[in-house]
Specification:
- It is a single chain.
- By secondary structure, the protein is mostly helical.
- It has one domain: Ribonucleotide Reductase, subunit A, CATH 1.10.620.20.
- The chain is 57% helix and 0% strand.
């Protein structure tokens, strides 16, 4: 009998041939000695990092807004299989120009790697170091959503019949795509260590700066701006299924970024910490340089209604918006909103944008209701 069946709970495990220990049939469970009672958890003892409260006890909340993020995320549940891709297959093979196919494929190539990187960063660096369970529980949902986004890109790749090895390897062989991933890895690598001591003030600043890069730049700027070339195709009636997939992803990413901004603001207050302006300036300059190179590659030939210059200008405008939301200086003063349709396009139908107004109520799956 297979020792790993899960429908025969009462059957003893048989001796294994590969060194797996057998069940001790003479074992008789005894009552464990009761440990000393613990003091009740006080919500005031919770902190974003270095907290003293019980990490296993969800309530009472100190950060009720984090729980609301978790509830809102679950009301936005969806899967890529809910959206038809048949018309996209026809569009890709019969309507897109070579320049448009180049744009679409390379946006997918960047996103497939980026969301796996995001998933690992949240699960291994951020979630593990935050000491309030209401923060962790939303981030557990965020890890799932990043995996869902990766599934979505894979679903698009499979539906269109693209060469998977070629698409997935572009981040390794195309310098302009690799540059963004390499920058993210460098900025996030140090805080991935499990022994990164956040009681050290220098390390705490490094963690805050790393999380700023991840939540504000990587998710809040690169992702928010990164879907725009596909939305530009959607506005012309092309690749509408893929664009709708990205709109669902955008709703998740808007929440991820908003959560991250809230965490950063509260972390800086709790720890009496300020982000070094010189370090922030370097972050923005590196991010802009990487985004400019990337835009120059994916949009080496402009497509109707969209080009590399517009892409970079919109990155600067979004960067200023994110900086204001955190409460730091705008990195690109005077940057203009050259794509006023992006906020509307990035949100399904008439849903309001989370950052500018309020998000309308979500419902589960494909039965979303709209104001």
């Amino acid at each position: 009998m297979n020792a790993f069946r899960f429908d025969d709970w009462d059957t003893p495990v048989q001796p294994a041939v590969s060194g797996i220990p057998t069940v001790n049939r003479n074992f008789s469970p005894k009552m464990e000695t009761h440990a000393a009672a613990l003091a009740p958890t006080n919500a005031a003892d919770k902190r974003i990092v270095n907290g003293k409260a019980d990490i296993n006890q969800l309530a009472p909340f100190k950060y009720p807004w984090a729980w609301e993020f978790f509830l809102k995320a679950n009301r936005n549940h969806w899967t890529p299989l809910e959206i038809g891709m048949a018309q996209d297959v026809h569009d890709y093979h019969h309507k897109l120009s070579p320049a448009e196919r180049h744009v679409f494929e390379n946006v997918l190539a960047y996103l497939t790697t980026s969301d796996i990187l995001a998933m690992r960063n949240i699960g291994l660096a951020v979630m593990e170091k935050m000491s309030a369970p209401e923060l962790q529980i939303y981030q557990a949902r965020q890890v799932y959503e990043e995996a869902l986004h990766t599934w979505t890109y894979q679903h698009c790749i499979e539906s269109l019949g693209l060469a998977q090895q070629e698409i997935y390897n572009r981040y390794r062989v195309v310098p302009e795509i690799h540059g963004k991933i390499a920058l993210a890895n460098r900025r996030l690598e140090k805080v991935l260590r499990s022994d990164f001591d956040l009681t050290d003030r220098a390390n705490l600043h490094e963690f805050a700066l790393s999380y700023f890069f991840f939540a504000v730049i990587f998710e809040g700027c690169w992702f928010y701006n990164g879907f725009t070339p596909v939305f530009a195709l959607q506005r012309r009636g092309l690749m509408k299924g893929a664009a709708e997939q990205l709109q669902y992803i955008m709703r998740d990413e808007v929440l991820h970024c908003a959560f991250g901004i809230r965490v950063i603001r509260e972390l800086l207050i709790e720890e009496n910490l300020s982000l070094d302006p010189t370090a922030l300036r370097q972050l923005w300059d590196e991010a802009e340089a990487a985004e400019t190179a990337y835009a120059g590659y994916i949009l080496r030939e402009p497509i109707l209604g969209y080009n590399a210059e517009l892409h970079v200008q919109q990155f600067r405008f979004i960067a200023n918006r994110r900086a204001r939301q955190v409460g730091v200086a705008e990195p690109f003063p005077g940057a203009e909103n050259v794509l006023p349709w992006l906020d509307e396009q990035a949100n399904l139908r008439k849903e309001k944008n989370f950052f500018e107004t309020r998000v309308t109520e979500y419902q589960t799956g494909g039965a979303l209701a709209w104001d």
